Amino acid sequence: MTKPTPATRIAELRRQLEDANYRYHVLDEPNIPDAEYDRLLRELDELEVAHPQLLTADSPTQRVGNAPSAKFAEVRHAIPMLSLGNAFSDEEVHDFVRRIADKLKRPTLRFSAEPKLDGLAISLRYEKGHFVQGATRGDGATGEDVTVNLRTVKAIPLRLRSGMAGMGKGESGAAQNADEAASPIPEVLEVRGEVYMPRADFEKYNEQARLHGGKVLANPRNGAAGSLRQLDPRITAQRPLAFFAYGTGLVEGAVLPDSHSATLAQLRQWGFPVSGLSEVVEGAEGLLDYYRRIGERRDALPFDIDGVVYKLDDGEGQREMGFVSRAPRWAIAHKFPAQEQATTVQAIEIQIGRTGAATPVARLAPVQVAGVIVTNATLHNADQIARLDVRVGDAVIVRRAGDVIPEVVSVILERRPAGTQAWQMPAQCPVCGSEIVREEGEAVWRCSGELSCPAQRKEAIRHFASRRAMDIEGLGDKYIETLVDAGIVRGVADLYQLRRDQLLHLKLVLDAESPQALAGAVKPHLRPEGSGEVLNAIARLDGGSKDWRARALSQQIDFEWNPKKIATKWADNLIAAIDASRDAMLERLLFALGIQHVGESTAKALAQWFGDLDLIRRLPWPLFKRVPDIGGEVARSLGHFFEQPGNQQAIDDLLTVGKVRIRDTHPPTARLRDGLDLATLLVDLEIPKVTRVRAEQLASTLAEVSPGAINRFAQALPDAPTHNFVSAGLPAESANALTAWLQVPDNARLLTRSAGALAELLEKTPEGVVEATGPLDGKTVVLTGGLSSMSRDEAGARLEALGAKVAGSVSKKTHLVVAGEAAGSKLAKAQELGIEIWDEAQLLDFLAKHDAA
Q1: pLDDT digits (tens, 9 = 90+) for 822-851
Q2: Which cofactor does it need (predicted)?
Q3: 367 has which bridge partners?
Q4: Which of the two ends of the chain, N or C, has the fewest CB atoms closer than 10 A to its terminal CB?
Q5: Mind listing the pLDDT tens digit for each residue in 230-283?
C-alpha cells in the first residue's frame, strides 16, 4: 500500500471526526473513546499546521462548540453566546482580578461565583412573557432550534411569573426578599443557561434501560446533549433533564438590574431555577476560597461540574471591561486541575488562524497524559513563551487543560540541554511570507497579509462581500467555502471573474447529498455527446471524503442549461450584485479590505480626508495620524497593511482584473494643510525624547518652508552630527536620543519617505479654501433604540452629513444621544452622565430644519 498524501489523510481524518461528532452529539451513540477522538484531532491539527494551504474554516480543529444539526432549523443568536477564558492556577485568578482592578481603578471588587455545569448550553427566548423559541449554543453565532424538546423540560417555565408568590431566599442569598417589588416582564427576554442530567436521575434511567433492554446513556453530559437532539419530543420527555439559568442575552422593553447577582435573583423571581451554590464574594481570595470549597464538595454534588465561573458582579464594570475575541474580559472559568506529565519540546511552530492570529504551537515527544498520547501543545502567545522561557530541546510539564487542550505548564530548568536559544517570533508569516506584527499593548501577533494570506482567505472574502462593505447580496458562506476549496476563488478579485455557469454548477453541487445524486442532477444539463464520461467522473468521486464537493466543482463541464430543471434568476441576481459593486465608494472599499482596526468610521474618515485610494495606499504610517481620531496603533496597522506586496497586488487585481472603480475620488481636504508641517511630522514619527517643543525647535532651523526644503532637510538629518541638534536648542538628552533613532536604517528610511509624502500632500491639498461646516461639526452622537420613520443607518448618515461623528457607545466624550423605542443601557448611561438626550420627534425636527437650510 502506498502512503496517503497529506490531502487524502486530512480528508479521511475530517470524515472520521465529523462522523464521531455526529454519533456522539446527535445520535447519542459514541463509536470511539475520547482518547481516540483526541488522537485523531491532534493528528489533523499537526497536518494542517504542516500544510496550512489545506486548512479550511469548517475543519474540526477550527470548531467552536458544535455545528448545528442538519435535522433542525438554524437559529441565529441575536447576541452571540460567548465562550470564556480559562484559569488553572491561583496566580491566573490573581492576574484576572488584577487586570480588572487596574482597568477600573477600584481597590475592591465583588464577583458572582457559580459552579460550571457540565451539560449543554442553551438560549431561551421569551416574548411578552411566553416561551417562543429555544436554541443550542451551536458555534456561538448559530445554534439548533430545539424549542419543542425544551418544552418537555419541566424546569423551564413556559410562561414567566410576574409575582413573588412562593419565592424565598436561596442557599447563597442570591434571591431577593419576597417583599421586594416585582419587576415588569420585558417585551423580549433571552435567558442563557445549562440543560443537564442530575447524577441520581442518570443512574436511575440507565438502571431501567438495562432492566428493559433499552439504550444505556454514556454519561450525564452526553445524555443531556443527546436528549435535546431527539427528533421525537416524546423521547426527550422521558429523559430526566434539569436546567439552571446563569445569564441573559437580548433584553428589550425593560432594564434588568445592573449586577449579575441581582439579575440571577430577578430570573429566579420570574420562575427560572438558579443554582443555590452561587455566591457573591470579594477579591481574589474570596474567589479562591469559593473554588476550594466547591472543589471539596464536587464529588458529593447532585450534578457534574468541571470547574467554577467567576463574573464581575456589577454591570457598569462589565461594560467598561468589554470583550476580547469571543470572550468577555470580566468573566473567567476556573477549571479543576488536569493531569500533568513531562516530555520534550522538539520544535516550536507558528499556526496562522483565519483572522491572522499567529499562535505558537509546541511539537512534543509523544507522551501519555490522562490516557491520551499528546504530541503537540499550545503556547498561546509570545508573552507566554517568554514568561515560561520555553526553548526547543527543553524538558517541560504538559497538562491537558480542561481535559481537552494540551498546554505547556512549565520548564524543568535542571534538565535544559546546553546551547539552547531563546525563542523569537518569526518576522514572516509561514503561509504567505507577509510581515508578522504585534499590536501595541496586545499579546497577539498577526499576519499582516490580510488579503493575500491563504490562511485568512475565506474570512477576507466573507468580509469583503458583506453588506456594510461591498454589499454583494446573495454570496453566502456556503458559496464562499466551496468556491475557495475548489480553487475557483483565490482572492477578492476572483469574485469579479465568476460566471453564471459556475454559480449554477455550484448550486447543484451544494444541493447534492452524494456524487451519485450530483450526477443525476447534472445529467439534464449536458449535451448528449461526451456526457457519459462526465457523469462517470462525477460518480467516481469519494462521497465519504469531506472535500468531494470542492473536487466536483473544480471539474470543467460544458453545460447547456435546461431552465425547466434549474432556477437561474438567483445566479443572474448574484452576477448583477457583483457587477454593481464594481462602482464603489472609497470608504466602502477601504472598509472591505479588512485592515486590522479599520472599521466603518475610520474608513469614512480616510476617504474624506485623503480622497484618493492611489494616494492612501502609498502613505507611510505617520501621515495617517493627520486624520482626527487615528492614533499610532491604527496608523501602524494601515502602514503594515499597505507595505505588504501581496496586499498591494490584491488591490491592483481589484482595479485591473476586477475593474473596480472608485466613483468619489477627490483631492485631500483643505483641513489637512493645518497639520502638514515638519514639526508635526517629527512628533508623529514618535522619536524618543522629541516632544512638540523640541520638534518645533528643529523645524525652526529651516531657512524656508516649502515641500522641497522639507525634503532636503529630512534627507540631511540622518547624517547630521549630534552637536548640530544641540545648536538648534535641543537638550543633550533629546539630541542623543534623536541621533540614536536616526542611526537605525529603517527609521531613517521612514523619515525620508514620510517627508516625501508630506511634500506630495502639500502640493495636492488646496490652499485658501474655506470648507463648509455643519451644525454638528465636532459633535459625537450616539443612536440607540428603534426609530419608526427611518433606519438607524439612514439617521446616522444624515447626522454625519451635518458634521456629526456617529459612535456606537456612550462615554464622557458623547455630546448627544438620540433615543428611540426600547432604548436600553445606552440611554441609562447617558442619563447617568448628564448627556443631552433627544427623542425621535426632536431628531426629525432638527433634520427638517437643516435640510431646508
Answers
A1: 888 888 888 888 899 999 888 888 888 887
A2: Mg(2+); Mn(2+)
A3: 374
A4: N
A5: 878 888 888 889 999 999 999 999 889 999 999 999 998 888 989 999 999 999
Give the span between the Cα atoms of 816 and 839, in whole angstroms: 11
Q: Are strands 130-136 and 120-127 parallel, antiparallel or unpaired?
A: antiparallel
Task: Return the CATH number of the domain spanning residue range 340-425.
Answer: 2.40.50.140
Confidence of residue 23 (pLDDT cuts 50, 70, 90): low
- Greater pLDDT, 67 or 383: 383
- Inter-residue long-range contacts of 824-831, CB under 8 Å, 24+ positions, other chains counted: 824/251, 824/252, 824/255, 824/784, 824/785, 825/255, 825/315, 825/319, 826/782, 826/784, 827/784, 827/785, 828/255, 829/319, 830/782
- How far apart (Å, rounded) are the C-alpha atoms in residues 664 and 644? 25
Beta-strand relationship, 805-807 and 780-784: parallel
Kindly report, residue by residue over 287-326, the tens digit of the pLDDT: 999 999 998 888 788 898 889 999 999 999 999 999 876 6
pLDDT of residue 771: 59
- If you ran DSSP here, which 8-state letter would residue 256 be given? -
CA 599 to chain centre: 14
**Sheet bearing 85-87, strands edge to edge:** 85-87, 331-335, 305-312, 110-117, 279-282
pLDDT at 169: 37
For residues 146 and 228, the answer to whether their CB atoms sit within 8 Å is yes
Residues 756/622, Cβ–Cβ less than 8 Å: no
pLDDT tens digits, 751-780: 999 999 999 999 999 886 555 567 888 788
Q: Which CATH superfamily is domain 780-852 in?
A: BRCT domain (3.40.50.10190)
Cβ neighbors of 270 (< 8 A, separation 6 or more) are 157, 160, 161, 162, 185
What DSSP assignment string belongs to 297-355? Answer: HGGGSSS-EEEEEEEESBHHHHHHH-EETTEETTEEEEEPP--EEEEEEEEEEEEE-TT
Helix (H, G, I), strand (E, B) or coil at 713: helix
Q: How far apart are CA 103 and CA 85, in angstroms?
A: 18
Nearest partner of 788 among 750, 847, 841, judged by Cα = 841
What kind and span of H or E run contains 509? Answer: helix 500-511
Nearest to 263 by CA among 282, 277, 243, 249: 249
d(CA 529, CA 787): 60
Catalytic hit among 103, 105, 116, 128: 116
Asked about 458 being catalytic, the answer comes back as no
DSSP codes of every residue in 42-64: HHHHHHHHHSGGG--TTSGGG-S
CA distance 306 to 295: 9
> Rounded to whole angstroms, how far apart are CA atoms 649 and 27?
48
Pick the CATH number of 74-335 from 3.40.50.150, 3.30.470.30, 3.40.710.10, 2.60.120.20: 3.30.470.30
Tell me: pLDDT of 569 over 60: yes
Domain 6-62, CATH among 1.10.10.10, 3.40.50.1100, 1.10.150.20, 1.10.287.610: 1.10.287.610
